[in-house]
Amino acid sequence: MNEKNKVALYIRVSTDKQFNDGFGLEDQKKRLEQYCLAKNYEIYKIYCEGESAKDTIHRPQYNSMLADMERKKFSKILTIKLDRISRSTRDFYTLLSTIKGNNCSLEFIDTPLDLDGMSGKMMAGILCVFAEFERDLIVDRTQRGVNEAVQNGHFGGKPPLGYTNKTSDGNMTKTWQINKEEAKIVKEIFQLCLNGNSYAQISNIMNKKYPNIIACYRIDKTTGERIPIYRHWKDSSIYVILNNKRYIGIHEHRKTSKTKDTIEILGKIEPIITDETFYECQDNIKKNSRNYYRNKNYLFMQKLKCPKCGRILACNGARKVDKKDYLYYKCSKCNVYVREEWIEKVLIDSLIDMLELYLVLGGNYYPISNDLAIDFNDCRVNNEIRFSIDNRLINDKKKGIVRYDSIYPVWNDTPYETKCEFIREYVDTIEVKICSNKGSKFPKIELVNLKLKSNKIKMLFDLKEKCMLDEVEDYGNYKCSISMFKSENEALKYIEILKKKFNIKTIERISTDEDYYYYNDDLFKVINILPKKAIEKPKSIYLELCN
């Protein structure tokens, strides 16, 4: 049998069951094969499609069939009915023209039409109009149903990290609730972004810390077993999380649509992070966009402003003959460059107290023993930060380290990576001035403005309001911490904790109208107690270290 008696079978099964009209893959295939047997047609090939019939561009099997037709592989295209091959009037008449130009024909087994005659073409056009109208009607009805469901908080697809589907009477619903364990990871990712980490840095941290987070399950077709697929943290996945408004309770309906506006659905998702955190992260991402995929660490990356034009300086580095890395920051516009070590020397005095606090808050400085942790739990105020600071001051005093000598060792003993994290987390921008320095080959650097991040300033104020953070001031040759307690009972509890580890004595004094200044070389702490009543006088307790 030659090509003139061969037919191509075209089967289209839509992914949306509403468009299949009861014709599944096997049903269509069986009916077409039986028809060919009855008509004595030889089947050249079956072209099976799973794409929409709204156009011809996105249908690979359809286009493959037309290519084979042009190569004269068959003489007839056979399909169940017209809407299986097209639901567009324009595309249908284009197809008819192409078929005629290749001496081929088209046949529908459910609706026999003579497509060579005018009446057959007219009837096919009418059927195509109805098919197109039906498709548009179903699409419109489906979209309205989806819109209504979304407005009621019923979301399709798999929930993002941090959420899971609610269950009702043992059945999974399309509404979401917070997954507490995953929500902790989401909060950590946003905090890392707030701290200035790039996508690459965050993904590296996540891969090391959370390698066994399950992303989804795959069903083994042989055994039916659910096999976990573990999440691999990539730059792209971190990007999706940090730019997802669902984490602040906003569902962006039609966000990926190119033709329709995005609709924001509010109040249907419980937020995991605050609006302030989300939008501050967006500012960080925008500001650091040029370096968001950088793996190498620079101490002041995206922090230094050009002294001339105010632009953020770019990071550069070079390795000299001595194999030492020399890092510097350069303005591409003004050709200004500043060595990292020059800036570091200028900033140490301004940042040392903040660095010590950062180490304390991060738990990297003085770990609290189990016994002390139990004592702290009995206090209404969290005294761990206060204790870590006092521990530092007492040890310095025991070693005879005066304040002038204690600054630089703390900075120099801190690992470079930790200092980078600290700068990213606390510092927003740094403005410096470069001056001539006669008699020296290095310029003189002056600090003009050091701007800290607003969320860190807020955090410090919150700690201060809760009486959890002490001020550290200079008393003579040493530093001394100044505490504020709202009740004398809480102050005495904390003093008892200190006495369990250190040999100390206390001096109490009621403040009077007379100026009073007490100093002793052994003094390391002053506790001020707020009066409960207006008529009461403020009370202070001075703590000294005994030899």
Any overview of this molecule?
- The protein is of the alpha/beta class and 547 residues long.
- It has helices at 25-39, 60-70, 82-85, 89-101, 118-151, 180-194, 199-209, 235-242, 275-287, 340-361, 370-377, 384-399, 403-413, 416-426, 454-465, 488-501; strands at 6-12, 42-49, 76-79, 105-108, 163-168, 171-178, 214-219, 226-230, 250-253, 263-266, 304-305, 314-319, 325-330, 337-339, 427-435, 444-452, 471-475, 478-485, 504-510, 523-529, 539-545.
- The chain has a 5-stranded mixed beta sheet with strand order 17-18-20-21-19, covered by helices on one side.
- A hairpin with a 6-residue loop joins strand 7 and strand 8.
- The radius of gyration is 37 Å and the shape is elongated.
Please render the helix and strand layout as text.
Blueprint: E1 6-12, H1 25-39, E2 42-49, H2 60-70, E3 76-79, H3 82-85, H4 89-101, E4 105-108, H5 118-151, E5 163-168, E6 171-178, H6 180-194, H7 199-209, E7 214-219, E8 226-230, H8 235-242, E9 250-253, E10 263-266, H9 275-287, E11 304-305, E12 314-319, E13 325-330, E14 337-339, H10 340-361, H11 370-377, H12 384-399, H13 403-413, H14 416-426, E15 427-435, E16 444-452, H15 454-465, E17 471-475, E18 478-485, H16 488-501, E19 504-510, E20 523-529, E21 539-545
Parallel strand pairs: 1-2, 1-3, 3-4, 11-15, 18-20
Antiparallel strand pairs: 5-6, 7-8, 9-10, 12-13, 13-14, 15-16, 17-18, 19-21, 20-21
Helix pairs in contact: 6-9, 7-8, 10-13
